[in-house]
Amino acid sequence: MSVMVARKKVVRKWEKLPGRNTFCCDGRIMMARQKGIFYLTLFLILGTCALFFAFECRYLAVQLSPAIPVFAAVLFLFAMATLLRTSFSDPGVIPRALPDEAAFIEMEIEATNGTVPQGQRPPPRIKNFQINNQIVKLKYCYTCKIFRPPRASHCSICDNCVERFDHHCPWVGNCVGKRNYRYFYLFILSLSLLTIYIFTFNIVYVALKSLKIGFLNTLKETPGTYPSMSLTVLTVLEVLICFFTLWSVVGLTGFHTFLVALNQTTNEDIKGSWTGKNRVQNPYSHGNIVKNCCEVLCGPLPPSVLDRRGILQQEESTAQEGSCLRGPGTQEPPATQGPGQAQEGGMKQQDGSIPPPTAVPAPSVSDTKMPEEKQRTPGELPVPSLDAGQAEH
After folding, report:
1. Would you please indicate which residues are annotated as catalytic (active-site) residues?
2. Exposed, middle or buried: residue 125 (CB in 10 Å: 0-12, 13-18, 19+)?
3. Quick one: pLDDT at residue 1?
4. Is residue 142, in this structure, part of any structural domain at all?
5. Cys-Cys crosslink for 217: which of 85, 121, 213, 275, Cβ 3.0 to 4.6 Å?
């Protein structure tokens, strides 16, 4: 006889989350699925800084000051830390509605809008919300089945609604939202300073070498360990990378500095939410640059509402052989032992457990003894025994 036993299998919530995200380290790291450009970002930063520390820094530390590589290392470590913090964190994803919640919201919408005749377009699903005496519209997300909070938007790449959505940045491999915007801003700011720093001291390096041995001789100089590659060729390569990176990164930093000062997002700026024809004022701005910067960069960081590492318990049923389940302290009820039972009792194991019934041979008909018959004289017919029911009749 088989018995179904339920075993619990621990499943983390990040394994069942919808959307197009990837998770690593048991849900601690959350990124977008498209990470190719993020790896390119890492390669450019690590490669440029490795060349700078390997060649120019050694010369500049001796000729000018040993503080040059130290300050470059500080900028490099800070830029890498903010990049990884931006890329590996939850940007502020809003959980989707549960089936019961979605059904309740749909029922509310139908009760409000009424039945829409066939062939007519249903009215937009919008709720009005007041912030600082300003009416803000909350739009309904047909994918997440929720009314999005103010400033939230649905990312088509990650397929999630993100709170205070700014933009999806492929260079960091993640969305930029409420929970990682400050780290994104610090990353591009530190990367701008690092790019300017390396670009400047590369020019200084070439200038110092040219003053000593001449510019043409500097171009021909080769180190002993790398006879086929000129130091100046590597320097020129660094200068070109920094030059083309300088305009984009510094320009991006200036643009986001402008947005931070106005307490505005990239999504709102592109859509013209507060600068359109209606000339609606930004209800989130405090009217003060310092207050706006403090709120965006120094305000309290909200916790993640996903609970990625929360536990979901699922039951798995497994079949086991056995007639019944007994605890280790359960004993057999006392009963009169017959010859077959005495044999079964003698087959008990040394640890006190009883082997499965399938291991005990069933008693045959010949082993079962009939009640002894009353002795009778020869020629006397046997008198059949009467049970209790027949005796009453």
Report:
1. 169
2. middle
3. 52
4. yes
5. 213
User: Taking Cα atoms as reference points, which of 231, 233, 184 lies closest to residue 56?
Assistant: 231
Are 24 and 47 within one domain? yes
Identity of the amino acid at 215: F
Closest CA to 176 of 153, 198, 199: 153
Q: Are residues 109 and 220 in the same domain?
A: no
Q: Which residues of the chain have pLDDT under 50?
A: 222-229, 319, 322-393
For 188, the token pair is: 């591009």
Q: How many CA atoms lie within 13 A of 40 on its CB side?
A: 9
- Beta pairing class for 160-162 and 126-131: unpaired
Tally of CB atoms within 10 A around 343? 14
User: Is there a single domain that holds both residue 186 and residue 238?
Assistant: yes
DSSP characters over 108-140 = HHHHHH-PPPTTSPPPP-EEEEEETTEEEEEEE
- Angstrom distance (rounded) from CA 139 to CA 124: 8
The beta strand positions in the chain, using DSSP E, are 2-12, 21-24, 29-32, 93-94, 126-131, 134-141, 146-147, 153-155, 160-162, 167-169, 174-176, 311-321
Are the C-beta atoms of 235 and 202 separated by less than 8 Å?
Answer: yes
Q: Beta-carbon neighbour count of residue 363 at 10 Å?
A: 14
Instruction: Note down the domain range covering 274.
Output: 13-94+167-298
